[in-house]
Amino acid sequence: MKLVPEALSGYQRAWLARDIIAGLTLSAVAIPEVMGYTSIAGTPIVTGLYTIIFPTILFALLGSSRLLVVGADSATAAVLAAGLTGLGIAGVTPGSPDWLAFTSLTALVCGVLLILARLLRLGFIGDFLSASVLIGFLTGVGIQVLSGQIPDLLGVSKGSGNWFEQQWHWISSLSSISVGTFAFGLATIVTIVVFKRFLPVVPGAIVAVVLLTAISAVTDASTHDVAVVGAVKGGFPPLGLPSGISWSDVTKVLPTALSCVVLIIAQSAATSRSFAFKHGDAVDINRDIVGLSGASLAAGLSGTFVVNGSPTKTEILDEQKGRTQLANLTMAAVALLFTLFFTGLLADMPKAVLAGIVFLIGVSLIDLPGLKRLWRRRQDEFIVALITAITVFAVGVEQGIILAIVLSLLDVVRRQYTPGDFVIGQDEAGEPTYQPAVPGAQSLPGLVVFRYDAELFFANANRFADHLESVISAAPDPVRWVALDCGGIDDIDYSAGVTLANLVKYSRARNARFVLVQPDIQLLATLRAYGTLDTIGEDNVFPTLEDAFRAYQADTAAMETRTDS
């Protein structure tokens, strides 16, 4: 039995000091951040601290990534809040004990779903959200997150209704803003931005929290129309099942948990993979799912909400030269000490300070450089990203998740349905040339070498056949050979096998020989099982393009000799 966690295997003593320093630095950033995320999740501030204690420890012990930081995350917090709000259950409102119980239940259900995902080896799910869709989704979440903090920054009430109605509410309330609240919020934003720009080694968020909380206490800001956090109940995280929950509630939170799980796998897998590649480490996404499952279960059993792998905090840890999960364990220890002994210091912290921290997190999620790259390079994918972003903030985060999955799957189908297809020729040196497979294209007089760069299956088989038939029928010279280049075809389902057999018959009806070029062994075995290879003929299979061209030219020469004689 392996006693050392995988993420700590091969540990070197020289890494110890760097890991501890990185963990302490990460704590300074993570503690104010996770407290801020509670304003999105609608839970007490202390629950944010809980997300980086036991969940972080469980991932460090069970996961494979050496650097991935697991804790509260803005995207999953937004999905959670939107999902629970949509339930519309009496008494289950943000900030209530029942609401917290439902957030913990959702974390538990996420943990169970992640266990199932590991057993079924579903780590590949993360690959089904394309980069463009993720850019759009996170941008939409960023807009929703930052816009949700504006009322707390201004000291006005939050509106109800859809996103546009909520924005109109604070815009129409500008005449009643709290100057003191706005001053604290603006000071928070300026402090963080200035430190990030001119002194990035010092966490601006912790400076803002300490400095502005002290100013609030000295000036007694709560008596001057500035909303403050108030007494924060500290102590050891509560352990056990959420109270007041029944089995019937599991089905109520299941859709929200499913949405969170998809996002957790996608975001954590992408983050874990990118940092593993950067340092030459092995990637084991399925093992990371085990760690994420343990983290979610720990969150649900310690009175907090859904956790996720954090790209921003992982980036901070990497910048601080952290080497292993020992840095994250250090962060968890600091968070636990803070929860046990120092939460009383938060009583005078203005709520606008947390709003300013979360506002900037929302800004950081808006991927303008990514959107610009998509606009310059792939405008169709830019439109997909834009639609996803608008859906997330204007309709809902859960709907955005569903749309993101649907758009990604549609993109896969689109690429398979309309892949690149070419007619291959030869230049004077015998090297292959590629031209679009349009009517009138041919490889040589009487020869069409057709390349289709996708698997053949029921959805694209007829389009493939129609396209090849149009090229054959419109060729400048009567086609004597039809060669299918299989270099881009890994598999053919039974429907496509029938279609291919019909294409062979069509070619022979036009007095053309149908041959296969560059098929791999597995493809030939599949065609042999369908009986399609019997229709084509084993002697009509050529291992390379050169062999096919050479055979056609020899056949043409033999035919000309017969004609001359």
From TrEMBL:
It is a multi-pass membrane protein. Residues 437-552 form the STAS domain. GO terms for biological process: transmembrane transport. GO terms for cellular component: membrane. The chain crosses the membrane at residues 45-63, 75-93, 99-116, 128-150, 170-194, 201-219, 326-346, 352-371, 383-410. Gene3D superfamilies: STAS domain. The keyword Membrane applies. It holds the Pfam family Sulfate_transp. Keywords: Membrane, Transmembrane, Transmembrane helix. It is found in: Membrane. The keyword Transmembrane helix applies. InterPro entries: SLC26A/SulP_dom, SLC26A/SulP_fam, STAS_dom, STAS_dom_sf. This is SulP family inorganic anion transporter. It comes from Kribbella pittospori.
